[in-house]
Design brief:
The protein is of the alpha+beta class. It has three helices and five strands, in the order αβββαββα. Bound molecules: adenosine monophosphate (AMP).
Amino acid sequence: MSIFSKIAEGEIPSYKCAENEEFYAFLDINPMVKGHTLVIPRREVDYIFDMEDDELARFEVFAKKVAVAIKAAFPCVKVGQAVLGLEVPHAHIHLIPMQSEKDMNFANSKMSLSAEEMKEIAEKIYKEFSK
Ligand code: AMP
């Protein structure tokens, strides 16, 4: 089982931002900015473009709802979306509240936030998602 499958199953703790039967969203543990969220399918698949068209479409629609919640919780110019998957072999979309294009530079040094702060951020996004 991939580390992200274990997260979606609750076997490994995460800061939950949103979920439904098929998809799960949680905070990136080393965020580029506050509100940096990962969205994953519960089904284990490594490469996003190996997903079937229907599943990929539902994945993107779910990611859109999470992005709307992120923007409401953390006002920003736009929420940027990126797919890398170079580190973790389980498809995931990065959603990043952007103030400028610099916020999307994955070569930037990452933030390390306290557990309390991570919890607060995730709760804010979850509350918006649940509205
Ligand atoms: P990539 O596969 O290149 O898209 O990078 C994987 C991302 O997952 C990185 O931004 C990591 O900080 C993040 N990450 C790895 N392990 C965890 C975890 N246990 N919880 C939350 N985020 C994680």
